Amino acid sequence: MAAVRFPLGQVVATPGALAALAQSRERPEKFLTRHQSGDWGDLCEEDCSLNKAALVNGSRLLSAYQTANGTRVWIITEAEDDKGIRRSTCILLPEDY
Fold first, then answer.
1. Exposure string (b/e) for 39-75, b if CB count within 10 Å is 16 or more?
2. Which residues fall within 8 angstroms of residue 22, CB to CB, at 6 or more apart?
3. What span, in angstroms and rounded, lies between the C-alpha atoms of 59 and 41?
4. Distance, C-alpha 71 to centroid of its chain
5. What residues pair up with 41 in beta bridges, in sequence order?
6. Burial level of 89, CB count in 10 A (0-12/13-18/19+)?
7. Is residue 1 pLDDT above 90, yes or no?
8. pLDDT for 25-69, tens place per residue?
């Protein structure tokens, strides 16, 4: 099991993301575990660098994954303050943003 790098806080998901996961027969935990361990999925180098900095400065974290049937899913863990406190994480489709 990968090391946990930050707290998720309360986890929520949009109806679209839940439907996409159900269609692909994948559980949210699969992607949440990757996100929380620092596997950012399909992000460009710049976004990966922003996440690396966010682990230090406490800002927002973003991951992007594809389900087994090719639907793109984002996971965003919001920053609450500059001390690394994160109280919520949302699983969503890009069009839900």
1. ebbebeeebeebbeebeeebbebbbbbebeeebebbb
2. none
3. 18
4. 15
5. 64
6. buried
7. no
8. 999 999 999 999 999 999 999 999 999 999 988 899 999 999 999
The amino acid occupying position 36 is Q
pTM score over 0.90:
yes
| All residues at 6 or more sequence positions from 87 whose CB lies less than 8 Å from its CB, including other chains | 9, 10, 78, 80
Query: Rounded to an integer, what distance in angstroms lies between the CA atom of residue 5 and that of residue 38?
Result: 7
Q: Which tokens go with 37? A: 């361990």
Residue 56 Cα distances to 47, 63, 96, angstroms: 15, 17, 28
Burial degree of 3 (CB within 10 A; 0-12, 13-18, 19+): exposed
